[in-house]
């Protein structure tokens, strides 16, 4: 056997290729390692900005050319680097952030690996210029392919801080460069990385330029209003309109920042910014805690928006879990998850408990239009006797009306049918709402287009989306019934046969109790079949077969743990509430409308439906006065 060890490689054209083990040269090692750090221009911007933050910068300037493919320049006014340390700064595994394993376990800086500058220099032309605080001048170094000791240190012009210039990314590795996208696409990734770091430190100013044009300038934010202004500028003003402040402390942790109400939910998770000790992170534990707090407010296909900061003892976080330092591991992950979940949940509950301020709206003004061919005057329509009827002057109680509106809504009149004032149903007169004991949502006045309920309270006008409101009421009732084991099931005269996969059929047996708890009675009838014998009473007239298939499919996918099953059950209950809720086009009586208003007042999170849509808004008297220019 030869002295060198050989391994048989892949066979090509029936010929075995043998390769000997050899040491890779330093340049190739650096280029391979750079693949973990430098994925695209945005990766370079992130690493250089993090170095500037660690250096105590007050301002960070980022200058980009051609989407970062041609040139990236990051300059700061931080502490700078001493002349004699410049060669070490661009060497592999050289850092000032840590010097031992104990320091790594408690690291508080953003960078600590000592790989960024060396990795960048191996795949692009890099020039590092810096001036230390007490130095009389600046110096620059440009790493080359030669050995480090042959690099030259030369005088340079710089007032203070550090400037890193990167040119012609991946010019030395054409195979990597061809995988980069168009300059506009690459710059969009750069801007996202810039925004993410700009949101991590409000006490620092940031400037971003692209091809000579200033794209963003963010002054240091010294107070809460300035912080919120930066958040709105980077995420969008609509986020600010829906933002709710979070500030909770417990067990040595603090969670602060802003979350958006469900009305600002997104189709994708593109407005989620999470930080641990000012480090931007992607963490499943953290994100799931936030998502769980929104569980009853957002549909599965919608994502919450938030900017949240978790401060925790650095020793409780492992930041050395990902080459790009984007992921962390918590030593007490369950504790962190529950703390995030409860903190966000309390903030959302506080909004729902005080819905007036959150849902005050300005109505758009439209000038009256004269009828075609008319005299130019608008003749008011006669008011229906519905509001003049003296019958039933007293308001019925909640208990007397709840059953009537919940499951026995009267059928809406046929399309095109007319009602004369004499045919209008009698209704109780609307009580005065200026008394101290008037309910929060007031009393119903009328129904608009058989979709919205108009009500009057002490503040002014209430507009209610009756379907959204009823959907939330039913959902919360169903959850209570589920917890008490009281969801009613209706037996089918003829069982429905379900054709299933083997895993799904097995899940029917495994999760029989969970299925029965939501009113689905399903029994296995064979290796790949099951019989649907009972369905939720609420959905007896809906497509309950589709519901059964969906539920069994989810269980067959291997939902693990009671929480996963409960999450899916909550989704089913939400769908049941949506399908059973009163639909648009259904005519309601004042009694039914008032019953719905009273139930809303006693329902958790009644301000939004199960899909995150607002269920009601308040228009106060001052807003109404502005519409008609009263007092001007």
TrEMBL record:
Organism the protein comes from: Salinisphaera dokdonensis CL-ES53
InterPro entries named in the record: DNA_mismatch_repair_CS, DNA_mismatch_repair_MutL, DNA_mismatch_S5_2-like, HATPase_C_sf, MutL/Mlh/PMS, MutL/Mlh/Pms-like, MutL_C, MutL_C_dimsub
Region Disordered, annotated ranges: 413-435
Family: Belongs to the DNA mismatch repair MutL/HexB family.
Protein name: DNA mismatch repair protein MutL
Function of the molecule: This protein is involved in the repair of mismatches in DNA. It is required for dam-dependent methyl-directed DNA mismatch repair. May act as a 'molecular matchmaker', a protein that promotes the formation of a stable complex between two or more DNA-binding proteins in an ATP-dependent manner without itself being part of a final effector complex.
Location of the DNA mismatch repair protein S5 domain: 231-349
Alphabetical keyword list: DNA damage, DNA repair
Biased composition (Low complexity): 419-433
Database matches in SMART domains: DNA_mis_repair (SM01340), MutL_C (SM00853)
Pfam families: DNA_mis_repair (PF01119), HATPase_c_3 (PF13589), MutL_C (PF08676)
Domain of life the protein comes from: Bacteria
Keyword Oxidoreductase: no
Residues of the MutL C-terminal dimerisation domain: 444-588
